[in-house]
């Protein structure tokens, strides 16, 4: 897991999780996912967090259990989770249960509009347990998700 940034003002940490194949952003089907890399996405997330006084910790894995472990580790350390679970969105009860278990506000993000794609992408195991779902906004979805969580946190401060 990458180091938490220190450019926030200590208001808290948001965990940004990316699932399988998102490490290939930039070269993976660029006509669908664009040309921004995972590093670009993570920088955007960190910059957005910093603008709101929040640290952003980023983690990507192609392995379901590693994503579950990262969600567990967020309990007690993060104020919210932004998750693009990739294909696990449509298959993983384990990731769903992990998010429910840690009781942190989660925002589900998809770069593409999954509802305009194949039928099997229309169902998500995460949507009904997420505070918000953002799909089809490209990598800006990550920015919107962090802004949403920052607003949620501000309303609780
Ligand atoms: O890997 C991905 C990426 C995705 O989550 C997106 O960001 O648009 C959409 C998923 O259906 C797909 O399996």
UniProtKB/TrEMBL annotation:
Pathway where this protein functions: Metabolic intermediate biosynthesis; chorismate biosynthesis; chorismate from D-erythrose 4-phosphate and phosphoenolpyruvate: step 3/7
Residues given in the record as substrate binding sites: 84, 90, 97, 111-112, 121
Reaction(s) this enzyme catalyzes, per UniProt: 3-dehydroquinate = 3-dehydroshikimate + H2O
Organism field: Arthrobacter ginsengisoli
UniProt keyword Lyase present: yes
Site (Transition state stabilizer): 28
Coiled-coil boundaries: none
Lyase found in the keyword field: yes
Cited Pfam families: DHquinase_II (PF01220)
EC numbers, comma separated: 4.2.1.10
The protein's role, per its UniProt record: Catalyzes a trans-dehydration via an enolate intermediate.
Homology family: Belongs to the type-II 3-dehydroquinase family.
Active site residues of this protein: 33, 110
This protein's name: 3-dehydroquinate dehydratase
Phylogenetic classification of the source organism: Bacteria, Bacillati, Actinomycetota, Actinomycetes, Micrococcales
Gene: aroQ
InterPro entries found in the cross-reference section: DHquinase_II (IPR001874), DHquinase_II_CS (IPR018509), DHquinase_II_sf (IPR036441)
Subunit structure: Homododecamer.
């Amino acid at each position: 897991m990458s180091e938490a940034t220190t450019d926030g003002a200590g208001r808290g940490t948001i965990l940004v999780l990316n699932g399988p194949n998102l490490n290939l952003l930039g070269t993976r089907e660029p006509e669908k996912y664009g040309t921004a890399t995972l590093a670009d996405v993570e920088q955007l997330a960190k910059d957005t967090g910093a603008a709101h006084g929040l640290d952003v910790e980023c983690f990507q894995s192609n392995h379901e259990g590693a994503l579950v472990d990262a969600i567990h580790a967020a309990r007690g350390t993060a104020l919210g989770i932004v998750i693009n679970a990739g294909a696990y969105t449509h298959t993983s009860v384990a990731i769903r249960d992990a998010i429910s278990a840690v009781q942190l506000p989660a925002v589900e993000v998809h770069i593409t509009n999954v509802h305009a794609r194949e039928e099997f992408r229309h169902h998500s195991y995460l949507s009904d347990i997420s505070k918000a779902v953002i799909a089809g906004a490209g990598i800006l979805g990550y920015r919107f998700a962090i802004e949403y969580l920052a607003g949620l946190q501000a309303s609780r401060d």
